Hints:
With 185 residues, this protein is mainly alpha-helical. It has helices at 6-16, 22-41, 53-138, 150-160, 166-176, 181-184.
Amino acid sequence: MTQDTDGIIKANELLQDPETTVEELRAAQDGISSEMRTLNAQQLPDVAQATSMAQRREFEAQRQEVGAMNEILSNLFRRLGDAIQRRRAQDAIEGAEGDRAALEKALELAETARAAYLAAAKDALDCADVIAKGRQAAGHTGFDKVGATAAQVDKLQDLAEPLLEVAALQRLRLTTQLGDPRKVA
Length: 185
């Protein structure tokens, strides 16, 4: 009678331990899978090739033993797969509170960053408004002296894009850029 392999013994031990990790279960499942491949690769003698009753019984016993081992390995493979799924579910349940806390922290950081972005964008738009009013006050004589550079207007438009409509973005360039923005842009 064939004895249990080390892989079978280890797999059964892991299945009994509630603290087994997914990685340990997966390694055991890989080991069982390897044993199954090795077992299935064996060349068994055909019973019809037996030349005596003793040899026939021997061939039948070998086939029966391989069949039984294959059933054991298949059963262990399935049980390890089920245990992996249960462990993943348990890990997800146990980690859910931490995941929610991490999400809450990330959302708070995003909200803080968004508030800072909105404040900075508002400040930039306020500066652009002051420049636009200065350009208007300077009139034609200050046309090339009062205003933002084309690069500054480009950055301002990128920054303000989520906050302003297309027409307002175009008006921003027209009212704040140095010189004649229709010629530069």
